[in-house]
Design brief:
Elements: H1 9-20, H2 29-43, H3 58-78, E1 95-102, E2 105-112, H4 114-129, E3 134-136, E4 145-147, H5 157-191, H6 197-200, H7 202-208
Antiparallel strand pairs: 1-2, 3-4
Helix pairs in contact: 1-2, 1-3, 1-4, 3-4
The protein binds zinc ion.
């Protein structure tokens, strides 16, 4: 019996966030099978036995669970941090619990439909980890959900460097325009008379830059 790779709540939540945004259409059949096994591990965090996880539920079910995961996480991350947001999960989950003794520990098995197991496990890991680290990547044209585990404010090194480059280019542009603006103003000051000043005065140039 192999240990469940998603036993640890933070690892499990990171997996859920990643799964929710995975491009399933670009996965090879093998990658899809591997992903399915991990989803099974997530749904069965209490009783996961790798040998039992071969009753694959197929790409349709995977897509359905993915949509629901993204919906729940998005609702939570978009809700304001003060007060109560929109309900992310509401209603009954039909789950069967089996509790038995395992040495000095209590062994629990939870059985149910994939959707109800998913919602229950999401509740479990979100409760354990909290929402403080669940973020939306601030990089333009990204907006991915991610778990902030380091000081980095972005979902990936790529988004971080892209944003840094954008900022640098904007700064360089502003610097250049300030420089050109100064030159133009001097030239205009020399060649044109005061009547053009109100339109092309220093204030307007600065606003446009
Ligand atoms: Zn990003």
């Amino acid at each position: 019996m192999k240990a469940n790779p998603l036993q640890e709540p933070r690892t499990a939540l990171r997996f859920a966030v990643d799964f929710a945004q995975k491009d399933l259409g670009h996965l090879t059949p093998r990658q899809l099978r591997d992903l399915e096994r991990l989803v099974q591990a997530f749904l069965n965090r209490e009783k996961w036995v790798s040998e039992h996880v071969d009753g694959a539920f197929g790409p349709k079910q995977l897509e359905f669970l993915q949509e629901r995961t993204l919906e729940i996480l998005t609702n939570l991350v978009n809700a304001s941090s003060v007060g109560k947001g929109r309900l992310a999960i509401a209603g009954d989950l039909r789950l069967s619990f089996y509790l038995s003794r395992d040495g000095d520990r209590v062994h629990i098995e939870v059985l149910g439909s994939p959707l109800h197991l998913l919602e229950y496990q999401l509740k479990e890991v979100l409760e354990a980890v909290g929402l403080g680290k669940l973020r939306v990547c601030p990089s333009t044209a990204c907006g991915r959900l991610f778990l902030k585990v380091t000081k980095k404010e972005f979902c990936s090194a790529r988004c971080q460097s892209r944003t840094y480059m954008q900022k640098r280019r904007a700064e360089e542009r502003a610097e250049k325009e300030r420089f050109i603006g100064k030159k133009t103003r001097t030239r205009r000051g020399q060649h044109h008379t005061a009547e053009r000043r109100p339109l092309d005065g220093p204030n307007q140039s600065r606003t446009r830059a």
